[in-house]
PH (Pleckstrin Homology) domain-containing protein (Lapillicoccus jejuensis), 148 residues
Amino acid sequence: MTPSGQVAIRLPLALRVVVAAFLAVWVGAIVWTTVVHPHGSSVVVGVVMCAFGVALGYRILRLGVSSGEDGVLHVHNPWASRDLSRGEIEEFRTGTDGGRRLGQRRVMALLRDGTAYNLDVCQAPPFGVGSTRMSRQLDQLNSWLRAR
């Protein structure tokens, strides 16, 4: 939590660096291949692959949870972003997402309408790695929620 009591959770710096480096290599290799071997269809395929890589890399690097002064939690998952007000959230808990990803544990916002919204930036593999970080994030989110 920031000194002002606001939430700011992002991917670890090392992971962001790896994703950015992979993205640079991906785009560089495709551009280089397209320039060296410029055939009609390879240019189109290269442009599509570059666009896909940039879009995916951008969404991964944008993963995060942050709160504003207005009491709204801004959640950026890979394929969707959502703003949740404090009034919509009942509590935060850890759980799995129904086995879609081999029991990968994550923090979920339990909403007052009975649904759960996954916070993809707050997740840990099923092997125990990252549990401490996830617990810290869970505590941070619940502290923010109680600070009404």
Observations:
- The chain has a mean pLDDT of 86.
